[in-house]
Amino acid sequence: MNDTPAAPLLDVRGLKVHFPVRRGPFGRVTGHVRAVDGVSLALRPGETLGLVGESGCGKTTLGRALARAVEPSAGRVLYDPGDGGDPWDVGALSRRGLRAYQRQVRVVFQDPFSSLNPRMTLLRIVGDPLKAHGLASGSELEDRVADMLTRVGLSSRYMRRYPHAFSGGERQRISIARALILGPRLVIADEPVSALDVSVRAQILNLLLELREQLNLTYLFISHDLSVVESVCDRVAVMYLGKVVETGPTSPLYAQPRHPYTEALLSAVPRPDPRLRGAGRRIRLADDLPDPARPPAGCSFHTRCQAAVDGVCDVPGRPPELAPAGEGRLTACHRATDLTLTGVPALGPAVEGA
Amino acid sequence: MTGLAAAPGAAGTTQTPEGPPTEKKGGAPPRDSASQWRLVWRRFRRHRLAMLGLAVTAALYLVAIFADFLAPFGTEHFDEDYPYAPPQTIQFDGGLHVDGYTTAVDNETYEQTFTTDPSQRIPVGFFVRGEEYRLLGLIPWDRHLFGPTEPGAPMYLLGADRTGHDLLSQLIHGTRVSMTIGLIGVVVAFVLGVVLGGLSGYLAGRADTVIQRVVEFFMSLPSLPLWLGLAAALPPEWGPLQRYFAISVVLALIGWTHLAREVRGRFLALREEQFVTAARLDGCGRRRVILGHMLPSVSSHLIAQLSLSVPAMILAETALSFLGLGLQAPVVSWGVLLQDAQNVRVLETAPWLMIPGLAVVVAVLALNFAGDGLRDAADPYRR
Ligand SMILES: Nc1ncnc2c1ncn2[C@@H]1O[C@H](COP(=O)(O)OP(=O)(O)OP(=O)(O)O)[C@@H](O)[C@H]1O
Ligand code: SF4
Ligand SMILES: [Mg+2]
């Protein structure tokens, strides 16, 4: 449609989401949790971008800000509607514009138990988006719900059942059906399989991949499981304390990380192949994630980075910026050029046929 | 509204065990399509004490509704020839009857005392003709469930008060006022509590802070003096009906705070629930999210909470009326009836005047049992 082939579907520039911290009897704001603190990213049409990082680094918040489930505090998100027109400035959309955007950008939640209203039947859960957007009603709505359920591998006979009658994997299928029934172009999947039993993970991942082919979807795939990310994602963005510290195509990034944090994450991945076990040294990350309300000065990773150099990495006001690092990669490290980091060889597919 | 919900073990997510790898049904077949109220009822029924409480409560409200028919006499009926007449017992010998009374006058104090006299028979029967009333406030009728077959004959199954009112009839009529004043108070409290608590929980932030401070202020007021003050401030020229409503509002002014807290807590937790975020992203407007998704999730809980605040209101009304600041004769409530039992000397001669207190205890216990059972049954999916 567009003659510039690389035009991103979603272009995120300096996005910030800060949550006020209220204290005391009158709820005075005493600080801000910088859950997302200046993220720049580009999502290309048709790709699956993995978003990885430790718990609490802001992945979920970023995903929700992109879906406008939370209000960003600063930054811009540009969405290419794919009709040849100008990109939409997602932060400045009118109410109607926002509804249209939220039809095209949908979310699959992590927890298949709390994301489905226990008091509604599948028909209502999956059909509600159609109704709320005034797209279908009555028997047409039922037909479309039945169709969607079949697509995600559930029998349409279950339409009048309540979610508690289903297993975790089936619930996640319901969640996927709800997301896809509006015919979105971008799906933000927030850890879609991490709450599931290992035995059903592969089925759900395969389903997501099949649907991506059939429906021309683009995925933002949030996960902390690096082996899952390797098997489903074309590109990976690594997040640390509210910032993206490295992005790049999956295999080169895994084979040779350019950021010490990526290296540390990769070194902690369990190796399925016993011959590879112990091949790389495991980098222990010191302590826990720093308080996102008071991120360290300079490079926010310097408190835990093995390669940190005093006077370079911890200078206040001089955080490393994302910079090109070859092979379509970006990294935010002052020492990117003089470090040689070890990655992991191909981890082997976590999903058959992926 | 994000991270907290995603955090492991957040707000009551039940991790029901994963089904077998083949992804077959998790739950037992009958659970598949049970609606929420059916599930609540099923759990409730297993609760013996709660069922008993519910039955007694239902009976009390039936009495309240059909008071005119069930009571042998109307509220205004009295016979000053029989002050403090003791209770009679119903006897059967071919037909039903109660014994009449003989009077003895104490030579020194000129005090009249009554004793039942087996030689006098006052026949009683079912569906006897008596005073006219309007059944359910509509249908004029003059039949009473039972009473003396001969109108005007003395029948005091639970004894009489100082002016010769039949205590049983008074008690039955009092049920109506006592059991409903709590309901009206609860409705007012419910509206205040749900609206303010809901706003507080849904909007969070500053609105929440302000509302919570107001709630705490009301909670910190000692309730009895406040009630007394407010009740005493009611204009004395107000009629019984006005007083009745005013008192129920006074009761509600205290009662709403707990409910508001409850609703707020639930809404705060619900806001973080992913299904609420999901509903917003599905395109549901604020109204639809609150009314269609959040309120139904707390409704069973709210109703349980409500049924637990009715007994508190009943007790409060009783206390106020007992102290002479609540309802006043000619309105009959259990509290008003208990005013007669304030005097120890009177209680010596007419201990049956304490029976309305027993009614209060029974009603409060029954409502509490039922409410507890409902509360336990209210959350079939969580916890
Ligand atoms: N509504 C909120 N109010 C205040 N702080 C929040 C809120 N939501 C998230 N946070 C904080 O923002 C930070 C990032 O949270 P987020 O859930 O985005 O992390 P995450 O990377 O998704 O973690 P996880 O892997 O555990 O899901 C955390 O410190 C979290 O406590
Ligand atoms: S800038 Fe310094 S502290 Fe930060 S990642 Fe690079 S080497 Fe480590
Ligand atoms: Mg998360």
Brief synopsis:
The complex is a heterodimer of chains A (354) and B (383). Chain A is α/β, with parallel strands linked by helices.
Descriptive account of the structure:
The complex is a heterodimer of chains A (354) and B (383). Chain A contains nine helices and twelve strands. Chain A has a domain at 234-343. In chain A, 49% of the residues are buried. The two termini of chain A are 28 Å apart. In chain A, the strands form two sheets. An eight-stranded mixed sheet of chain A has the order 6-7-8-3-9-10-12-11, with helices on both faces. Chain A has helices at 59-66, 95-104, 122-132, 138-151, 168-180, 198-215, 226-232, 250-255, 260-267; strands at 10-23, 28-43, 48-52, 74-79, 88-89, 105-108, 186-190, 218-222, 235-240, 243-249, 323-324, 330-331. In chain A, helix 3 (122-132) packs parallel to helix 5 (168-180) and helix 4 crosses helix 5 (168-180). Chain A has 354 residues and is α/β, with parallel strands linked by helices. With 383 residues, chain B is of the alpha+beta class. Chain B has a domain at 182-326. In chain B, 55% of the residues lie in helices and 13% in strands. Chain B has helices at 3-6, 36-45, 48-65, 67-70, 167-203, 205-220, 223-232, 240-272, 274-281, 286-322, 334-338, 344-349, 355-377, and strands at 90-93, 95-105, 112-135, 139-148. In chain B, strands 1-2-3-4 form a four-stranded antiparallel sheet. The longest helix of chain B has 37 residues, at 167-203. Chain B is elongated and about 85 Å long. The two termini of chain B are 22 Å apart. The complex binds adenosine-5'-triphosphate, iron/sulfur cluster and magnesium ion (MG). The site of magnesium ion (MG) has 3 residues of chain A, from helix 1. Iron/sulfur cluster (SF4) binds next to loops of chain A. Chain B: Residues 1-17 have a biased composition (Low complexity). Chain B: Residues 1-33 are annotated as: Disordered. Chain B: It comes from Streptomyces radicis.
